[in-house]
From TrEMBL:
This is Tyrosine--tRNA ligase. NCBIfam families: PRK08560.1, tyrS. The lineage of its organism: Eukaryota, Fungi, Dikarya, Basidiomycota, Wallemiomycotina. It is an enzyme of class 6 (ligase). It comes from Wallemia hederae. GO terms for cellular component: cytoplasm; nucleus. It is found in: Cytoplasm; Nucleus. The keyword Cytoplasm applies.
């Protein structure tokens, strides 16, 4: 027993290439649970597999760039990445959307995410899209779900989903199923590690505990830091002022950035700085290495700088940055004004969104899928008119049905009276 424990604790040696892969996979993360699981797989030369899931409910916003930039690291490191469109989870999460509408949104997410990865020059040959209902409705998965339910308390289920499932005074049972389903997905997607935000940590810890009890392997878990929204809190699909959609126009971006919280010298809960750190600088660095220039730096400086804050000479002239930390320092010491930072972030976001907008505008299928997934809301006056029309139609149909019934009853009555007549035989 002691020798077995020593064997488990033995350091896993990686060659230079494998170390580079591991560093690329784990860089810039807030937390890694089970790093040795990843190292062990890399050391054997086997295909490393990751799973990241998203529930296709609201419109994806630029906050999605945060996990997608990290997933780009996984793909560049040769990891096979399965993106799970969790349609069952989306339906269960406090019934945010009808199941039929969720299916249309799965199609939209598929088109959009592929467009984003291509715009980032990410290799997509090991990118796989999976729909949750393709396996979550099978007898084996259902049986495992019952087995999991038999060994999970209500307290543990609620605790695991506390950060990601909407908490209400009288919670639905569906919200408590959510964390267990996510744990089971690791086995059914045959991944080596699951990736998510640090808000998923309690679900990840539950998965590490519950899967071995079901006879399945424990997986590693990689977590990104949470990035605040434009208003300073969590970026949310339900708050239009805290997010920028991938298909927002340049004018929309400008308007939303203008409303963003950005107090002079304040680097805490600053969504603009957080976005630059998590998204813009990593993309700029990759583009500079692969293309020879950063798209977020002034043209004359793009071969060296990653990001530029352009401003007139009378306000000190433009500033060019080769690292995020210097920009954060300059903002903290008030060397960069909030207005200048907002303008620079607006330009960077529009640079990121432009190829995605072009892809959307040139693809009729993309447009049709988007319209089905997020049908435009009906004008209140038009909705009232439609409701009145439907009510009148219902009244007409009811009147027709009543008339037809009366007519049939009359015919039946006459027939009955005819039957009662004793016709003399000739």
């Amino acid at each position: 027993m002691a020798s077995a424990q020593k064997e488990v604790q033995k350091e896993i040696k990686l060659n230079d290439e494998q170390n580079n892969q591991f560093n690329l996979i784990t860089r810039s993360l807030q937390e890694v649970l089970g790093a040795d699981i990843i190292k062990q797989k890399l050391s054997t030369g086997e295909q490393l597999k990751c799973y990241w899931g998203t529930a296709p409910t609201g419109r994806p916003h630029v906050g999605y760039f945060v996990p997608l930039v990290k997933i780009a690291d996984f793909l560049r490191a040769g990891v096979e990445v399965k993106v799970l469109f969790a349609d069952i989870h989306a339906f269960l999460d406090n019934l945010k959307a009808p199941f039929e509408l969720v299916q249309d949104r799965v199609k939209y997410y598929t088109k959009l995410l592929r467009s984003i990865f291509i715009s980032l020059d990410v290799p997509v040959d090991k990118l796989i899209f999976v729909v949750g209902s393709s396996y979550q409705l099978t007898p084996q998965y259902s049986m495992d779900n019952y087995r999991l339910a038999a060994m999970t308390t209500e307290h543990d289920a609620k605790k695991a989903g506390a950060e990601v499932v909407k908490q209400v005074s009288s919670p639905l049972l569906s919200g408590m199923l959510y964390p267990g389903l996510q744990a089971l997905d690791e086995e059914y997607l045959k991944c080596d590690f699951q990736f998510g935000g640090v808000d998923q940590r309690k679900i990840f810890v539950m998965a590490e505990s519950i899967l071995p009890k079901l006879g399945y392997a424990k997986r590693a878990h990689l977590m990104n830091a949470m990035v605040p929204g434009l208003a300073g809190g969590k970026m949310s699909s339900s708050d239009p002022n805290s997010k920028i959609d991938f298909l927002d126009s340049a004018a929309d971006v400008k308007k939303k950035i203008k409303l963003a919280f950005c107090e002079e010298g304040n680097i805490e809960e600053n969504g603009l700085l957080a976005f630059l750190k998590a998204v813009v600088f990593p993309i700029a660095s990759f583009k500079q290495q692969s293309k020879g220039a950063s798209p977020f730096a002034a043209a004359a400086e793009s071969a060296q700088a990653l990001f530029s804050v352009t401003r007139p000479d009378k306000f000190g002239g433009s500033l060019h940055y080769t690292e995020y930390e210097k920009l954060e320092h300059d903002f903290a010491t008030k060397a960069v004004h909030p207005g200048d930072l907002k303008k620079a972030v607006e330009e960077a976001i529009n640079t990121l969104l432009e190829p995605i907008r072009k892809d959307f505008e040139s693809d009729e299928e993309f447009k049709a899928v988007e319209k089905a997934a997020y049908p435009p809301p009906m004008d209140p006056a038009a909705a009232a008119k439609e409701a009145k029309k439907a009510k009148n139609e219902a009244k007409k149909n009811k009147a027709k049905a009543s008339a037809a019934t009366f007519q049939q009853q009359s015919i039946d009555s006459v027939a009955e009276q005819v039957d009662k007549i004793d016709i003399p035989k000739q």
